[in-house]
Amino acid sequence: MTRILFLFAIALFVAGTASAVEISTTDSSAALFTSLERTAGGVNTISSDFVQEKHLALFKTAMISKGHFYFIKPDQLRWELTSPVASGFVLKGDKGRRWHERTGRMETFQISQEPVMKLVSEQLFAWAKADFAWLTKEYRITVLHDSPAALRLEPRSAATAGFLRHLLINFNADGRYVRSVELHENDGDFTRIKFVNTVVNKQLQADLF
Amino acid sequence: MVPSFTLFEKLYNFCAVRRKILFSATLLIIALSLLASSRLHLQEDIIAMLPDDSSSVAQDFRLLQLAPFTRKLVITLRGGSSSDSTALIAVTDRLAEGLKAAGIENVMTGPANISGGFFRWLGTSLPNLTTAEDLVRLAAGITPTEVQNRLRTRYEQLFSPEGWALKGSVQTDPLSLSSLALEKMRFLNMVPNMRLVQNHFVSADGTSALLVVDSAVSMTDSGGSRDLLERINRAISSSVPAGMSASVVSGHRYTLVNADTIKRDLYVVLTLSVFAVLAIYLVFLRSLSAVFVFLVPTSILVIATGAIALYDVNVFAVTLGFGGVLLGMVDEYAMLIYFSCRQGGKDPAVITAEVSRPVIFGAVATLISFGIMLLSSLPGQRQLAIYSMTGIVAALLISLIVLPHLIKPLPEVKLSLTSLGGAWRPPRRVVIGVWLAILAICTWQSTNIRFNGQLGAVSMVTPELRLAEEDLIKTWGNMRGKALLFAEETNLENALALNDKLFALISGRIPAGDLVSLAPLMPSDALQRANRERWFSFWQNGRAAQLGRDLAKSGEAYGFSKDAFTPFLATLIAPPPATTVESLRAAGMGELVDSLIIRSPGVVRVLTMVPDTPQVVAALSEEIKTVPGVRLISQSRFGDNVGRAIIRDFTRYLTLTSVLVLALLVVVFRSPSRVMLALVPVVTGLLCTLGIMGMCGIEFNIFNIAATILIIGLCVDYGIFMVCRLTEGSDHTTNRAVLVSGLTTLAGLGALALARHPSMYSIGITVLLGIGTGIPAALLVIPALCGKDTG
Questions:
Q1: Of A62, B285, B371, B516, which one has the fewest beta carbons inside 10 Å?
Q2: How many domains does chain B have?
Q3: Residue B108: which of B222, B19, B196, B4 has the closest Cα?
Q4: Are residues B430 and B282 in the same domain?
Q5: Domains in chain A and their CATH numbers?
Q6: Do the Cβ atoms of B84 and A59 come within 8 Å?
Q7: What is the interface size between A and B, counted as CB pairs within 8 Å?
Q8: Least confident of A125-134, B82-91, B455-464
């Protein structure tokens, strides 16, 4: 369970920072990774819409959801679903807030006390700090395409590999943000998140967080 | 003619021509005893004062050791003013690593990683665990409306971040039925104020983290405890940054504090005793022969210690601490021999024979006092009895057989009491009047005395330890102070069945947060079978099929595939694997199982824990009478029970000692008036001890009670000596012997009263009061009552 969330967190981060990966698994990839790292360093905020498709055997058709994603470096994030159910969460430092419109549930939490959110935020902030040492440790990264950059991440740990086959990350043309993330599970299910209308370094309203 | 034992006259004459052999044999015995003493191992813990027989108190104590946190070290890491739990957890992990680096392997900072295995186990175990009451709730949760609501909730969850983790469970348990089993986890919360943060034990206020160390070092092993605590402290120093702190609470700390205190006390008491006794000898005896008198009690210490080491190498520190008392106690025989032989005027063989009578009677009275303690269920008391009796017998033999050959009589100069400060003779009526007044006051004041049967009253607890214990309770709740209920049987199945009955009996009375029981998650096979049958019966008559239809209908609306819930529906009617210890372990609950199922040869105990409050304990004590095989042990009540058992034991021994000593006096003196006279020091000593303690507000604890037996044994000696002197024609050397030996006894005991350890202090203060008042009674009151002066 936590592993899946962990991967999800990575996907979120990748979408948010567009820093992609700077893992010098091979000499030929080094230049690309350096470039992505440099580009990520210049990204301070992201505002984006997203469309999430979940292709699960459990359902007859894909589960489609839409929403907004906001990020301010280094530790503020808003993940908001607008359909089919209005819900979402905000992470800010060690604090968090989640809501669900239909049930009217609104609650605050401390990230460190919620394993799931802890994983999400940990991964996010690790990427925000461009912690490539950690990425190298966790994933084998293959460059699928140089421009626009496309990466394939395969988990190194057997436990994670037990349910996740790989991640596919596609960047926009200038490498500043992610266009899409795909999480492929071993049972054939996969999730695709497409980021659209992405704006980088736009002034974001404080009350979003 | 003075009555005497002619055996000792003959013995003196026999040895007189074989003195080299006699002295050599004596020295050899002392040397061998010294050699034997070198192998002893000092044991400073409270075990000495805990019954080791088959009494219920002894059994309770053994069972108390099985409580989950009793034998573990609990480390509380405080995060200081910061409430940053991330930093706290990072330091917790660093400290755990530091402890491992220091060779302390079993360090737990959180539960075993409860992941998917646990939830799978919950789901598959549901038929085994679901009670009739649960099924009523289940029926309410599977109505068409409820199915629709629950499925919608699950569907919506799949879009959320948590949804990534829920895909599997939506398929296997779309209606969250396993929450019925999950709720049962409430009965496994062993640490009241704890929550899990990143799988670490963190306090409810988020400021502290908990580390539990399971060490193989026995709590009674002071050397091992010292090494263990030193390693822990080193790890804390190197791992915990400034601004944070860590405190350790465990029985090991108590052992170490008590060990250190007793060692310091032993050093002080024995050193002071030896010097004080030597000083008294130099002041009052002023002769080279006095050195030999001094050597009698000192060699007795060696012989008694050697003998006890041969009996058991593990010697309780309190036994050796008693050496100071013995040193001051056994010299009275040597003293009487010394003064009589120095006085001269007769053949030393005749003097020895004459003195042997009061000496032997006195020694027998003291031996009776200590002999009674052999019946005690307390190992410390039995060892003390052996130690003291060995010392007394050795003192008697050396005093009567060896010492007379070492003392040269003063041919011309007669010793007189005046030279020992006895010039002033108080009038008889004044003596008797004052004595009666003191007895009356002390009798009155003795009614104020308070008994404290708690073991804590005789155990050393430093302010630091008390504070650490208080902090632990404040931070985590009283996790170490629960009352324990043991369901005890010969095999696991029967023990679990008994535990089921117990849970059924008490679960309505005690809320889940306060009650810790394995029963809801690990019922017996029989109950699991019954639960399963009820479960399958529940799903029959078309109920499972109806649920399938309701799910399909609601699922259709959300786009679930036709077969989405087939696995779930199959589990409702498929026989699940039995819930076993192994399956609990596989689900990540091995620690809990090991804490609550305790196996020993031929016995399996399943532990339940409840709040240790007087109300709960009193109510449960009655209720569990209906479930034979269940034993309730309250830690707070245990202290009272031990105290009561010890007081009961000692009261019995005290009575027995009094009766036997009285019988001895009757046999020796054959006259009611002389018997009464001989008892004057005993009665005075006892009444004054109780009276003064009552007056000063000193509590009477289990060691005070033990010490009253010593008062009887010592004071009756003085009574016997004085009555022999006054009624059988002995000379005034008896007064001197009683006075000087009394002073040396007081010196030995006075040193004990300086001890910091409560047990030694208690013995010291009691006997100090008893002997301090018994000696004047012997020297002044007996002659006054006899109608004779003191000289």
A1: A62
A2: 3
A3: B196
A4: yes
A5: 2-208 (2.50.20.10)
A6: no
A7: 84
A8: A125-134
Q: By the CB < 8 Å criterion, does B171 face chain A? A: yes
* Residue A28, min C-alpha distance to chain B (Å): 34
**In a shared domain, residues B777 and B683:** yes
- The answer to whether the beta carbons of residues B689 and B705 sit under 8 Å apart is no
Q: Is B283 domain-assigned?
A: yes
Q: Report the alpha-carbon distance of residue B337 to residue B734 in Å, rounded.
A: 9
Q: Which amino acid is at B526?
A: A
B427 in the same domain as B513: no
Q: Which residue of A lies nearest to B159 if distances are taken between CA atoms?
A: A65
The answer to whether residue B467 sits within a structural domain is: no
Q: Are B224 and B324 members of one domain?
A: no
pTM of the prediction? 0.69
Residue B308 · residue B40 · CB < 8 Å: yes
Residue B633 within any structural domain of the chain: no
Among B590, B610, B630, identify where a domain stops.
B610
* Burial track B62-88 (b if 16+ CB lie within 10 A, e otherwise): ebeebbbbebbbbbbbbbeeeeebbbb
- Per-residue exposure over B433-451, b if at least 16 CB sit within 10 Å of its own CB, e if not: eebeebbeebeebbeebee
Residues of B in contact with A115 (CB under 8 A): 198-199
Q: Which of A4, A85, A117 sits opposite B159 (nearest CB)?
A: A85
Rounded to the nearest angstrom, the minimum Cα separation between B240 and chain A is 20
DSSP label at B136? H
Whether A139 contacts A155, CB under 8 Å:
yes
Q: CB within 8 A of B45, min separation 6: which ones?
A: B219, B220, B222, B255, B258, B259
> Choosing among A3, A112, A114, which should be mutated to test the B contact, i.e. which has the most B CBs within 10 A?
A112
The SS3 of residue B22 is: helix
Minimal Cβ distance to B165: which of A1, A84, A118: A1
Decide if A57 and B158 are in contact by the 8 Å CB cutoff.
no
pLDDT digits (tens, 9 = 90+) for A67-78: 999 988 878 889
Q: Cβ A113–B85 below 8 Å, yes or no?
A: yes
Q: Measure A197 CA to nearest chain B CA, in Å.
A: 21
Q: Which domain holds residue B214?
A: 72-111+199-249
How far is it, in rounded angstroms, from Cα A148 to Cα A172?
6
Low-confidence ranges of chain A (pLDDT < 70): 1-28, 30, 112-113, 115-116, 119-120, 122-136
Whether B290 has a pLDDT exceeding 50, the answer reads: yes
Is B518 a domain residue? yes
Contact call for B164 and A7, based on CB within 8 A: yes
Q: In angstroms, what separates the C-alpha of B504 from chain A's closest C-alpha?
A: 34
**Residue B789: both structure tokens together:** 């002066």
- Contact list in B for residue A66 (CB cut-off 8 A) is none
Sort out which chain A residues have CB atoms less than 8 A from B554's CB and list them. Answer: none
B82 and B160 both lie in a single domain: no
| Cα atoms in the 13 Å half-sphere on the side-chain side of B368 | 23
Interface check B564 vs A, CB under 8 A: yes
Distance from CA of B513 to the nearest CA of A (A): 20
